[in-house]
From TrEMBL:
<dbReference type="InterPro" id="IPR027417">
    <property type="entry name" value="P-loop_NTPase"/>
</dbReference>
<dbReference type="InterPro" id="IPR014217">
    <property type="entry name" value="Spore_III_AA"/>
</dbReference>
<keyword id="KW-0067">ATP-binding</keyword>
<keyword id="KW-0547">Nucleotide-binding</keyword>
<feature type="domain" description="AAA+ ATPase">
    <location>
        <begin position="151"/>
        <end position="295"/>
    </location>
</feature>
<protein>
    <submittedName>
        <fullName>Stage III sporulation protein AA</fullName>
    </submittedName>
</protein>
<dbReference type="Pfam" id="PF19568">
    <property type="entry name" value="Spore_III_AA"/>
</dbReference>
<dbReference type="InterPro" id="IPR045735">
    <property type="entry name" value="Spore_III_AA_AAA+_ATPase"/>
</dbReference>
<feature type="region of interest" description="Disordered">
    <location>
        <begin position="336"/>
        <end position="380"/>
    </location>
</feature>
<dbReference type="InterPro" id="IPR003593">
    <property type="entry name" value="AAA+_ATPase"/>
</dbReference>
Length: 380
C-alpha cells in the first residue's frame, strides 16, 4: 500500500490498515470508510471487511467500525484542513491526492438553482489506489498500430469501472512517447508527441504541474482541465501527434475528438461500458461508431488479479451498430410500438442520424487549430 495514502488516515485507522495480510496489501484497489459502519477493502477483484487486528473477514459484524471523528479527521487531511479551498472538488464528489489516488466522497448534496453546489456532512469515502503497471501496454499496443501511417490507430479502451482502463492508457502513452512500439514491423518508427488531458488528475498524477508517473520524454499534460476544452487547448498550443483522454461520453467530448482527428491527430480515449452492446447503446459513443471515428476498440475484463483484453475493429463495431441505432440516436422512444422493430433492423448511415435528445451541460465554444470557430455538438 503506498505510504502517502497511508499517511492520510488517522492513527487508529492507519494501524488497522498496516496490519492487513500481504495478499490484501499487495493487491489493494479500494478502501471504503463509512461513518459508524464496517471498514471494507477491495483487492484483486475481491472484497473483505477488516477486523481491528487487520485480519480479513466476510462477517461485517466482526469488522472495525470507523467513527465520526475518524471521518472528520480524514476529510481534514484530504483537504489540507481547508474545505473551502477544495470547493470545486467537493462539488464533483471526489478529491485526487498525491500519487494519482482518487478519493470519492458521499454525504449531503447542497443545491444552488437545481445544480449541486458542494457536499456537506461527508460521511463516506472510497479511496481508490492508483498503480503503475509497466509492460501492460506492451501486451496491447501491437494490435493497435497503423502500419501505413506508422503510428497508433484511433482507439477507444472500454471496460466497467476498476478493470484497468486508466492504467492501460497511462502505459500506452509512455510506450508511444518513448517509441517502444513492441512490434518488429515498427522498428525505426521513433517516438511521437503525446498530449494528455487529465481532467481527474489520475493518468499522470501531477504535483504542481509535474507528472508523478513515468509518461516518457515526449509527453505533455494538461492537468485538472475539462476534457473538451483541454483537447482544444492542447491542439492550439502543443501540437501533439497523439491525444490521450479518459472517460469520454458527453457530446462536447465527441465534438472535440472530431476536431482533433480532422487536425491529423490520433486519439486514444476510454469509456465506461461492459461490452460492445453497451458502447452502441450510449448515444454519443454510438454516433462516433457510426461515423467510423475509432478504428480499434479494446475491451478489458479482470479475472482474479489478471486483466484480459480483446480488440475489436471499427469495421466490426460499425456492422454491429444497426440494432442499436434507433434507440441510440433518439429516432424513437424505447417503448414505441410498431415501427421500432423495422427501424432497429435497418442499416443506418452516419449522415442520416439525428443527435440524441438527452440533456447535457452547456457546450463550450470550440475553435479548431486553423482559427475556425463554432459551437460544439454538431456533426463531424
Amino acid at each position: 500500500m503506498p505510504q502517502p495514502v497511508l499517511e492520510l488516515f488517522p492513527t487508529s485507522l492507519r494501524l488497522v490498515l498496516e496490519r492487513m495480510p500481504p495478499v490484501a496489501k499487495d493487491n489493494l484497489e479500494e478502501i471504503r470508510i463509512r461513518e459508524n459502519r464496517p471498514l471494507e477493502i477491495g483487492y484483486g477483484s475481491r472484497y473483505s471487511f477488516l477486523r481491528e487486528d487487520g485480519s480479513l473477514t466476510e462477517q461485517f459484524r466482526e469488522a472495525y467500525v470507523p467513527t465520526k471523528e475518524h471521518c472528520r479527521a480524514l476529510l481534514e487531511r484530504i483537504t489540507n484542513h481547508s474545505i473551502y479551498a477544495m470547493e470545486e472538488e467537493l462539488r464533483r464528489g471526489y478529491v485526487t491526492v498525491s500519487g494519482g489516488h482518487r478519493i470519492g466522497l458521499v454525504g449531503r448534496a447542497v443545491l444552488d438553482r437545481g445544480a449541486v453546489s458542494h457536499l456537506r456532512d461527508i460521511a463516506g469515502f472510497n479511496v481508490r489506489i492508483a498503480r503503475e503497471r509497466p509492460g501492460f501496454g506492451a501486451q496491447v499496443l501491437p494490435g493497435l498500430l497503423d502500419y501505413q501511417a506508422r503510428t497508433l490507430r484511433h482507439t477507444l479502451v472500454v471496460s466497467a469501472p476498476q478493470q484497468g482502463k486508466t492504467t492501460l492508457i497511462r502505459d500506452l502513452a509512455r510506450c508511444i512517447s518513448t517509441g517502444q512500439w513492441h512490434h518488429s514491423a515498427a522498428r525505426g518508427w521513433g517516438s511521437r508527441k503525446v498530449g494528455i488531458i487529465d481532467e481527474r488528475s489520475e493518468i499522470a498524477a501531477c504535483q504542481n504541474g509535474v507528472p508523478s508517473f513515468d509518461l516518457g520524454p515526449r509527453c505533455d499534460v494538461l492537468d485538472a482541465c475539462p476534457k473538451a476544452e483541454g483537447m482544444m487547448m492542447m491542439l492550439r498550443s502543443m501540437s501533439p501527434e497523439v491525444l490521450v483522454v479518459d472517460e469520454i461520453g458527453r457530446p462536447e467530448d465527441a465534438e472535440a475528438i472530431r476536431e482533433a482527428i480532422h487536425a491529423g491527430v490520433r486519439v486514444l480515449a476510454t469509456a465506461h461500458a461492459s461490452d460492445l452492446a453497451d458502447v452502441l447503446a450510449r448515444p454519443v459513443l454510438a454516433r462516433l461508431a457510426a461515423e467510423g471515428v475509432f478504428s480499434a476498440y479494446v475491451f478489458l475484463s479482470k479475472r482474479e488479479e489478471r486483466v484480459e483484453h480483446r480488440i475489436v475493429s471499427g469495421k466490426e463495431a460499425g456492422q454491429a451498430l444497426s440494432p442499436y441505432a434507433a434507440r441510440a440516436f433518439g429516432a424513437l422512444p424505447r417503448d414505441a410500438p410498431g415501427e421500432e422493430a423495422s427501424l432497429t433492423g435497418a442499416s443506418v448511415r452516419p449522415d442520416a442520424c439525428e443527435p440524441a435528445r438527452s440533456k447535457s451541460r452547456p457546450m463550450p465554444v470550440i475553435r479548431s487549430p486553423n482559427g475556425a470557430c463554432g459551437e460544439g455538438g454538431g456533426g463531424g
